[in-house]
Amino acid sequence: MPTTVVSNQDHHKRFEHYYFAATAILFLICCIVGFSAGIRNKASQGINMAASRYILHGIFGFLWILLYVIQTQLVFRKKIQWHTKAGKAAFAILILLTLSTLYLIISARTSHPEIPIEGLSFLVGIFGFSLLTVIPLLFIGIAMRKSPFHHKRLMFYGTLLLANTGIDRIPLAFGIPDNPIFTIIVDLIIALPLLIYDLRTALKKDKRFSTLFYFYPLSMFIVNVFVFAPQIYASKTWMKFVDWISFSA
């Protein structure tokens, strides 16, 4: 009997290792395809994608996705010591990614000088809300590295939400306008095997945790677009705030 238990545990871990390693590579591919199409699209609109704010943000975002791929590969190949050492770079990259994102927000007027304050307020609101709902997951995930179940899933969902900025632009590669509904559907499909796996194998409290985060991207999308957008981002107070924090550079 003890041998059977160990075998089942190994089987469960093997699924996680394959799943997280495979989806990490998928995130990287989606970001390369999506951002390549997005850069071409913005360049055709006359937006200077060579500006330092875009370059820095792109570099730090790419480094995070690349580090996530490396980390999942190290776990897959059972190089746990290397995984721990490489993890020390995650905190620094995450801070730099956060700062570069904030810089994009406050320089939104420069990036989109043609957009009136109403549109700029919506853009800053959507982008800022995404920052507040994604970055904390990754910081918490790093802090919970001694709890493997929660650490893996927080890092997975946080990175999935970061990769959404690339996934969202994939339709542009086929000449189709980007649509957030497409991104939500892709998120639900990618995360579904993990949810099913957790519902079959995890402890009861962990099943609740996994279910909560499976619907987290969809919930945040609904709150952001259907609650905050009409109620907050369209308000005069928010527009004044956006006008105050944004600058021309």
In short:
Helix content is 83%, strand content 0%. It is an all-alpha fold.
List the helices and strands and how they pair.
Blueprint: H1 2-44, H2 52-76, H3 80-106, H4 108-111, H5 117-143, H6 148-167, H7 180-201, H8 204-214, H9 216-233, H10 236-245
Helix pairs in contact: 1-2, 1-6, 1-7, 2-3, 2-6, 3-5, 5-6, 5-9, 5-10, 6-7, 6-8, 7-8
Structural account:
It is a single chain. The chain is mainly α and 249 residues long. It has one domain. The chain has 10 helices and no strands.
Which keywords apply here?
disordered N terminus; mainly alpha; single chain; globular; 0% strand; 10 helices; 249 residues
